[in-house]
What does this fold into?
Amino acid sequence: MLVTALLSVAVAAVASAPDESWPGGDPTVNPGTDFFLFANGGWLKENPIPADRVGFSMATLLSISAASKVRALLEEAAATSAEQPVFEPGKVGAYYAAFMDEQRVEFLGATPLDRSLRQIRQASSREELARLMGHADSSFHGSLFKLWIEPDSRRPERYAIYLGQGGLGSLDRDIYLAEDAAELRDAYRQYIARLLSLVSWDNSEAMAAQVVEFETQIAARSWTAADERDESKIYNPTGIAKLAGETPEFPWRAYLQGANLASAGTLIVVDRSAVPALAGLYSKTPIAVLKAWAALHLTDDAAPFLSHDFADAWFDLHGRRLQGAQIQSPRWQRALVQVSGGGSKDLDDSRGAMGDAVGRLYTQRWFQARSRETLRVLVDELKTTLRATISASAWMSAGAKAEAFKKLDVYRVEIGAPEHGDEYPGLVIRRDDLFGDVERATAYAWRQDRDRLHHPTDRARWTMTPQTVNAYNYAPFSEVVFTAALLQPPAFDPTQDSALTYGGIGAIIGHELTHGFDDVGRRFDATGHTRDWWSTTDNAHFAGNAATLIALFAGCEAAPGVHVDGHLTLGENIADIGGLQLAFAAYHASLHGRPAPVIDGLTGDQRFFLGFAKLRRGHRRSQALRTDVTSDPHTPDACRVNEDVRNVDGWYDAFGVTPASPLFIAADHRFVLW
Ligand SMILES: [Zn+2]
It folds into this structure.
């Protein structure tokens, strides 16, 4: 049952041509040719990408709205931080104030780097350099490998240490290797020379060329983002002694001592073949190159927190050349991302240095508890629809259906803010020491992560902050999360017409629920453990369906010559289409057999699909899209909308799409998960 607050009063209107009454649409486009443009073309023209951004979308608008609220909180906290430096709001304010104190940052110039640079200069062996790499999680030092701690994906009641490939600099793996990217590599080489000369590194020009060559070798040995989605390949528990025995080319013990993990027994190795290949490369690369590379990673990582010569060089490459932004975002925005974490793709998606502390301030002031209840009703309704859909599935075996129901029953739905988040009692923040603040916050987070190893997993902790505009499904915990910042118009608006609600937030809820059954999620059972609970014929059916979807999305161009990777985006595409189908069914169920009202000349079904397309309104610069398609598991917006709607039967009737339309897919070839 749908709560009445979600239904708007139906207003019968004189029917007009549907394509002329949809705000932000482009009535000159045929919906069966390009539904994305039909629904969004007018808005895209009226909303060009601002000079300081690499994209602009509905998600950006939501993030801007959340960011303006966070900014108000941070400025208030900064104004009073001097009076209460040990309390949480005081620390948050001091951190923000330190970032905003440009004069102090300019005055310090490159001096904050002195200690770490000296460590690199003084390192005289591969072992000493590896020890510094171990500090990567608690300082600005770089590393050839990545270490992180999170719930063990196959034993979700405890934490595990993960080890994966690392070492690449500012370029995406594919840019190092693509034949047509020589210009970008050259821009990167010049950037390295510029940074190395700023820290007076000897021979900066020649060393820059060698660093690019070294990183190209790393790229050639690294896995693609698509490879890293395959759960069966990336779970390789390995004892430290075994790792050291099999790959003696890398000084693992020194590295793990640097990371304060000397007593760890087992690591889960992710990129199984890349790790030994990188270890081999490390042993053959001249120390002088490794040291220049370490100096580059240190400086590149710290540049946004240093004086303008560093920060500008950093923006020239990362913002302008690689992403296509024309001007740097205002300083307050960069300060906000650092302290609070980011929102959408064009900000930083991390948790921020004190993200959970900001989240507490945010939800206290801005989150309305009744939104939680309203959303929960909708989630329950989508769950009921999912159960009915699975039950009616023509191909799932009875055993698989029973397991799927169990899984659905234990889904924990979290809305708004976590019960408790990270706290920062021992973290020292100083208003006059931005570099030190970032370093201490990084080290603090790593210490907290290491402490977690001694405790059972904390299921109340979220992987996102409440002020991030997003939602997620975390299979090991059977959990679906919707953040407070997501629950604002136009993503969530209880006063609007219910067709828009189901096509909008309804499809988002359906998306997150479906993730539990996508190509990765379906490998987890109701207890959060990985287990193959599907029959042989179930698996064969799923694989055949997935192959069709991979080919379908691979056929879509996000920009001229920029093709979607059907493998990388498979899980998101399954969730998108499955979610849209669920939301459509739930919308129809909510009508209880009554006809949907016509509003502004649009039928209920038309508004449903237009509402879906509206929330995915957006465009990105072509430079950014090029990186997106090799690294982001989400399909870019235009392809996402067009490929999704053409797999839902109801869309054809709603817009009169016939076999003559380019987007037409024959009914028996549409993707149906259940
Ligand atoms: Zn998703």
Q: What stands out?
A: Residues 511, 515, 572, 575 surround zinc ion (CB under 6 Å).
